[in-house]
Amino acid sequence: MNKIQSVITGTGSYIPENIIAGKHFLEHTFFDGGVKIDKDSEEIVQKFADITEINERRYIDDNQLNHDIGTIAAQRAIEDAGIDKETLDYILFCHNFGDVKLGSNRIDMLPALAAKVKVQLGITNPDCVAFDIIFGCPGWVQGMIQADYLIKSGDAKKVLVIGAETLSRIVDQHDRDSMIFADGAGATILEAVEGEEKTGILAHKAQTHASHADMLIMGGSNNPAENNGNAYIKMKGRKLYEFAVVTVPQLVKQAIDKSGVDVKQIKMVFIHQANGKMDHAIMKRLFKLYDEDTVPEKLVPMTISWLGNSSVATVPTLIDLVLKNKVDGYQIKKGDHAVFASVGAGMHINAIVYKF
Fold first, then answer.
1. Angle separating helix axes 314-323 and 139-152, nearest 10 degrees
2. Residue 266, helix vs strand vs coil
């Protein structure tokens, strides 16, 4: 008897054109704990790049909003899948801060960004249900998990899952961590496919470590002289690094074991682009859990050096780029097994084992 499989049939992404190099931050005055950092800005910027492996990041245009770039990625995914947009059963928009206008620092989340995308796409079918998912950086992976449930339940045949964020609108220019964050959008079409052979989403696992939620929060400026009431994205970098390196490998292992796939069959790991060194450490710890001393070459494609951390957009953007042969040295073939994994505010962790 044929089973319903959840399969990616189309991908799309939007990479903003504005390239923000380290020199952009040389005029910034950085504070830590309310005290001005007594170091040259050039030294701060260079040390940051050495630690995170981020040399550039992308920012949206002044007139763009989050749902605008989400729509572009969605349209590209629909075209890639070759489907009629009116046949979509659900649109899931994964983000954290809604629409934020340039200079406002006020978030707009009503109506849902998914509904705004539906309007921009020109979809008139009322049975296409559009809603948002707020799940920190792992939002798009969680959106795919939710879409899988919708398909496996029989309630949906086609689901559009978007991950998009405009973190440049919500960062504190007096915080060194602001240099991590970027803008971007990625989207996928997940479809129900009948067949005997296991394919598409094989297994998934998610966790919420709420007692660690203070690692990524909203807070005031690091500059004590700023008292405008604005809130910015804040993170405890060292604690987050230590948390992720321990917990993410354990959860990814649970997902792989649940899928029944041997770790040696995993050809690629699409992991959230948060910190280059952190991602390498996570992979090394994962393979240690399987008593493997080395991580296979060409396992983890990375875009963080030139795209930065665009939160929920990093994983779907990375998948789209690899599938379209835009990441040198990385190529996915039919039948290859892969892992999608992420960690972020919540603190949430999740992973999907997928067969292309």
1. 70
2. strand
Per-residue tokens: 62: 């002044």
- Spell 185-213 as b/e; 16+ CB within 10 A means b: bbbbbbbbbeeeeebbbbbbbbbeeeebe
Give 116's contacts (C-beta < 8 A, 6+ positions apart).
Answer: 67, 71, 99
- pLDDT tens for each residue of 72-101: 999 999 999 999 999 999 999 999 999 999
Residues in the chain: 356
In the beta sheet, which residues pair with residue 344? 348
CA 268 to chain centre: 16
Give the phi and the psi of residue 25 in degrees, each rounded to 5: -100, 0
Contacts of 274 (CB under 8 A, 6+ apart): 137, 180, 244, 304, 309, 314, 343, 344
Task: Report pLDDT digits (tens) over 119-166.
Answer: 999 999 999 999 999 999 999 999 999 999 999 999 999 999 999 999
- Tokens describing residue 168: 């440049």
- DSSP letter assigned to residue 31: E
Amino acid at 198: K
Structural Rg of the chain based on CA atoms: 20
Express each pLDDT in 19-67 by its tens digit: 999 889 888 888 888 888 888 888 888 988 888 889 999 999 999 999 9
Across the chain, how many H-helices and E-strands are there?
8, 17
Beta-ladder partners of 353 = 203, 339
Please name the helix (run of DSSP H) or strand (run of DSSP E) that holds residue 143, with its range, or none: helix 139-152
- How many Å apart are CA 200 and CA 353, to the nearest integer? 8
Which pLDDT belongs to residue 1?
A: 57
- pLDDT, mean over the chain: 93
**Separation between Cα atoms, residue 153 and residue 148, nearest integer Å:** 8
* Contact of 287 with 248, CB cutoff 8 Å: no
